Structures are given as structure tokens and as C-alpha cells.
Amino acid sequence: MNKTDERFEQFTTAVSRAYKSLQKIKTAETERMGLKGSHVMCLYYLGKNPDGLTAAQLCRLCNEDKAAISRTIGDLTGSGYIAGGGQTAASRYRARLILTESGREKTRQLWQAIVAAVEHASEGFNDEERVCFYRVFFTITDNLEKYAKGKERAE
């Protein structure tokens, strides 16, 4: 096996294992809280932005399409976790959405689960190593996104 094969195998295996573990954690925690996995990032970002966010902003921050965010907003509004939005589809997309009191409580629970998972994942290395890891990982991610976009244009 050459070095490229080895790097490919190690990287893809590690990313796959990490993704599967994240999905298992997300599923277990969201089920425990009565949420869906798709709710996590919307609640997370709304919790970080007490003045609210629009659906368009949530699409960008969550890296989701308009339809997925619309379904999630419908779920969270129906559960009483978020409020806001306009009367028409266009105005709802631009209207600010904010957490309700029960949404803030649910987000506090979510934050506790996130902190526990991140602390557990960070065991065994120091801050300098963590900073280096994220710098390298995001560089790889950026490079792969550029490469993928080039492949899309070539089709």
C-alpha cells in the first residue's frame, strides 16, 4: 500500500467513524429530549442569537436548504420552542424567529449535552493540539469543497 492509499484509508475511516458516533450521540440525546436531529442546529444558533434569526440566516448557518429549515421551523413552532414569522411564505422567510421560554429551556438542556460530548471528545489532548487539529481539519475540508466544486463544474 502506498502513502496516498494509506492516507485515504485512514482519513475516510476516521471521518466515517466520527460521523457515525456523532449521529449516535445526536440520536440518543435528541430522543431523550423529545427532539429530532434536525432541530439541534436551529436551536443551537437561535440560542446563540437571543435577538433572533431569520429562516434565511438559519439556512446559511445550519448549512441546510430552505425546505429543510422550513420543516424544522414548523416542528419547533408547533412544539412551542420558537415564535415569530410572517403571514406569507416570503415574509416568514425574512421574519425573525426567537426562542420561547420553553425553547430557551430546551436549548439549555441541549447545551449541557453538547458540552458533555465536546469535553469527552477533547480528552487526551491540550488546547494547542486542539487548535492545530481544527486548523488542519478545516483546511482539508476547504480543499475538498474546492475540489468537489471543480468536479461539479467539469460535469
Describe the structure.
By secondary structure, this protein is mainly alpha-helical. The protein contains seven helices and two strands. It has helices at residues 3-33, 39-48, 55-62, 66-78, 89-94, 101-121, 127-154, and strands spanning 82-84, 97-99. A two-stranded antiparallel ribbon has the order 1-2. Helix 1 packs antiparallel against helix 6, helix 2 (39-48) packs across helix 6 (101-121) and helix 3 (55-62) packs across helix 4 (66-78). It is globular and about 55 Å long.
Give the spatial strand order of the biggest sheet. 1-2
Structural class: mainly alpha
Computed Rg: 19 Å
What string, H for helix and E for strand, traces the elements in order?
Answer: HHHHEHEHH
The biggest sheet, with number of strands, parallel, antiparallel or mixed sense and barrel status, is: 2 strands, antiparallel
Total strand segments: 2
Please report the number of helical segments. Answer: 7
Query: Average pLDDT across residues?
Result: 91
Low-pLDDT stretches are none
Q: Estimate percent helicity.
A: over 70%
Tell the overall outline.
globular
Report how far the terminal alpha carbons are from each other: 31 Å
Gist of the model:
With 155 residues, the protein is mainly alpha-helical.
Can you lay out the helices and strands and say which pair or pack?
Blueprint: H1 3-33, H2 39-48, H3 55-62, H4 66-78, E1 82-84, H5 89-94, E2 97-99, H6 101-121, H7 127-154
Antiparallel strand pairs: 1-2
